[in-house]
Design a protein that fits this description.
Elements (H helix, E strand, L loop, with lengths): L1 H17 L3 H4 L9 H16 L9 H5 L3 H11 L6 H11 L5 H11 L6 H15 L4 H5 L7 H15 L6 H17 L3 H11 L1
Length: 201
């Protein structure tokens, strides 16, 4: 009799489980993100994948199509010490494609970080020059006497690019050339000086 009662109880429990409402069966698992958090995780994964190409960087249109959340994902990726160095460098360049104060503040903040790796600083300065044109000159000149020649090269090449860009006003180009002449006069790498003068024509 006792065995029959136990068997009946087990069958009734199984019946309850099998007839559970669909909403209970599809409830979030432990650790599953909410839709909002899932979106953040998703954009991070998308951006990381786009920046993971072995040879090719992502197209500007691909990233901009993801909207402003992509910029935040780029900033988070750059701050991830576990990310590949090439991903962090690409994050800097790609962040410069976005309009607005957030991208500007990110780049300027990086450029003014004393401990920033010279390679990252070089990338940041080039990105600033490409994004902001003549308005980036003060930030570029700030690093004109950097100890690393690669950083100084980025400064001088960026200034030379702007000084020969017809989209820049004639007065700004003249001012840029004067700034360059002053910096070239104190540049200690003779090969770099020759390269810049050749670019200026």
């Amino acid at each position: 009799m006792r065995r029959a009662l136990v068997l009946s109880w087990i069958l009734s429990v199984m019946g309850c489980v099998s007839s559970s409402p669909a909403s209970a069966q599809t409830s979030p698992r432990a650790g599953q993100t909410t839709p909002h958090a899932g979106r953040t995780t998703g954009i991070d994964a998308q951006v990381r994948e786009l920046l993971s190409g072995v040879e090719d960087a992502p197209a500007r249109e691909e990233l901009l199509a993801l909207g402003p959340d992509a910029l935040e994902a780029l900033i988070r990726l750059h701050g991830d010490a576990q990310a590949l160095p090439v991903q962090r460098l690409r994050a800097i360049t790609c962040a410069s494609w976005f309009d607005g104060d957030r991208a500007h503040g990110f780049l300027v903040g990086l450029a003014r970080t004393p401990s920033l790796d010279p390679i990252q600083l070089r990338t940041t300065l080039r990105a600033l020059a490409a994004r902001e044109g003549a308005q980036a000159v003060p930030e570029l000149v700030r690093h004109a006497s950097h100890a690393d020649v690669a950083v100084r090269e980025a400064v001088l090449q960026s200034l030379a690019m702007l000084a020969t860009d017809q989209a820049v006003s004639a007065s700004d180009r003249a001012s840029l050339r004067a700034t360059l002449e002053s910096l070239l006069g104190s540049e200690r790498d003779a090969e770099l000086v020759r390269a810049i003068r050749a670019r200026l024509g």
